Amino acid sequence: MSSLKSQMVWTKAKVSLALSLVTVFLGISLADLRVGFYSNTCPEAESIVRRVVSRASFSDPNLPAILLRLHFHDCFVEGCDGSILVDNGAFSEKFAFGHEGVRGFEIIEAVKAELEAACPGVVSCADIVALAARDSISLANGPAYEVPTGRRDGRVSNLSLAKDMPDVSDSIEILKDKFMQKGLHAKELVLLSAAHTIGTTACFFMTKRLYSFLPGGQPDPTINPVFLPELTTRCPQNGDVNTRIPMDRSSERLFDKQILHNIKDGFAVLQTDAGLYEDVATRRIVNSYVGLLNPLFGPSFESDFVKAIVKMGKIDVKTGSKGEIRRVCSTFN
Fold first, then answer.
1. Positive or negative CA dihedral for 229, 233, 238, 244?
2. Do the annotations mark residue 167 as ligand-binding?
3. Is the pLDDT of residue 30 over 60?
């Protein structure tokens, strides 16, 4: 009897080991992100995030763009782990030049405070950032989608780690390479760049493009001649570099694909956006969404954008026993 019992235990152990090997071989993690991760541990988590973000957006109509940008910047350094939120001194990641102008930290802290009151130590700051970005897109009349959650917060935050952030002066080849390093391809580059359909940028980032792009102080020749006077009027040479202008010429607070039409027609504000039409691969992707390749049966911009941002939200996430759940987003436990 004892021998039979031992054999059964040994058989179960072998089966368990075999299943573990299969999951490793297939790249499957038992701690993968999933929709509804907090359904039992903090059922009101997503509604709390949505309520705080919606309330804050009434006083700051630019908030949707701010929180969407925060999500992108968080994910591109150390993965989507809330590292950009930490303030641990002068060398904090948030102070990196690549994060210049990133805001929204106080909104994430406000959400975190309400979540800690409802279910202490359960919801990660990294998940709050991802959920806040989702709700921001919805507030800007963009597509609604579900966010897989279960991220944990990272324990590292250092500005040196942000040195390879995509930059407004990057060539299209450099941009494609930086995105490829994160597992994102040309299609995701176009779609995530189209998030510039909402929000503004500072004239600081336009100076070179308008006044010293070519020798002799000439502007970027890809700027539509009709658009150039608009840009130079808004961002005059030697003017206030902190003045902000819309990144989407036609609908700065509406999440749509108008910015892709702008890029095609030479009305892109940022140099990196304009570069999307200078590369064969990304130009074809832009054209597919503006109806030039197949006007009747082209791809859905909204659907593909959702896939792209959900994919971005999985970059180098910490799950399971990795990382921590911060009690305050700006401070390690």
1. negative
2. no
3. no
